[in-house]
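Subgroup meeting minutes
Present: P.N., E.W., G.H.
Scribe: E.W.

1. P.N. recapped why we're keeping a running log of single-chain structure predictions: easier to compare across weeks, and new members can see raw inputs and outputs side by side.
2. G.H. added today's entry (348 aa).
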Amino acid sequence: MNTIQRQIVWGVGLSLILTVLLLASYFVVFPPMNWEELWNRKLMDIPFALFVPSVSIAIGIIFGFGSGLSWKNSLYSVDRWLHEIVEGRSVAEENLKGSTDVLTIADKVGKVQRLIAEQAKITQKLANEKAEDQENRIQEIISEERNRLARELHDSVSQQLFAASMLMSAINETGEMLDDPRTKQLKMVESMIHQSQLEMRALLLHLRPVALKGKTLQQGVEELLIELTQKVTMKIEWKVESFPVEKGIEDHLFRILQESVSNTLRHSKANKLEVLLIKRDEWVILRVADDGVGFDVEGAKAGSYGLQNMNERAVEIGGTMKIISIKNQGTRLEVKIPILEEKGEDHD
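Output recorded in log:
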C-alpha cells in the first residue's frame, strides 16, 4: 500500500468515525420520533441514512488523496536529496524547500551534507600531513620486497631469457639459407622469447615503483608512460592536463596509476592502453582503460591485494574508485577525487 492509498484509508476511516460520533450525539440530544424518517427523508433524491455516510466517505477520500499527495511529494523530495548526497553531489540550499516538517528534515540534510564535506576536508588534510611519513614507513617495506623480487627476476629469469634470445637468433641466422620446415617454428620461438623479454622489462619496471621525487604529478605520469612505450609493444595513448594539487593527492594518484598499469601489463593481454588525467569543476579524474580480456570485478575484489590497495588509497583522500570490466572487451578504472578549498582561503 503506497502513501496515497494509506492516507485515503485513514481519511475515510476518520471521517466515518467523526460522522458516527456527531450523529450519535445529535440523536442523543434530539432523538427522532420515528426511525423510518431517516430512510424516507431524502436529500438530493438520496435517503438521509445513505447520504450522510456517502458524503463522509467522499470527504474522507478527497482529504486522504490530498494529504497523501502532499506526503508523497515531501517524501520524494527527501529521497531525491538523499540520493544526491549518496552520489556525492551537493544539494543547493535553495532547493531544500517544503512544508514545516519537510524543512526540519531539510535542515538535517543540510547538516549531513556539511558534515560529509568537512569529513572529506579532514581526511584530505590528514592524508596530506602524513603523506611523506606514510611513504617512508609503509611504502619502504613494500619497496624493499619488490626490489628483492626484481633483483631475483633480473638475475635469473631475465638473464636466461636474454641468453635464450641470443641463442635463438644465432640458430635462425645460421639456418636462414636452409630449406628446413622447422625454421618457421624457430622464428616463432624467437618472437615469443622477445615478447617475454618485453613483458619482463615492464614487470621489473613496476616492481620498482618510482616516486615523483620533486616532479609534478603531470610530469611523473608522462615520464612513466613514455618510458613504458619504450619497453612494451602495447599502444599507449594519454591525455594529461596540468593543474596544481596537494602532495598527498599527487602521491596517491601516482601510486594508483602505477598499480593499475602494472595490472594491465600482467593480466589484460591488451593491445591498447589509454590514460586520462584531467580536472573538471571541483573534481580530479584519473581514468585508465584497456581493450584486454577483462575479468570478474566482484570476484577479483575479494582476493586482489592490488585492487584493495588502490581503493584504499582513493578513499584515504576522500575520493571514489569504480571499475567496469567486460569479458573480451576490456577494463576501465576511474578514480574521482574532490578538490575542496579551505574556508577563508585567499584567492587573490
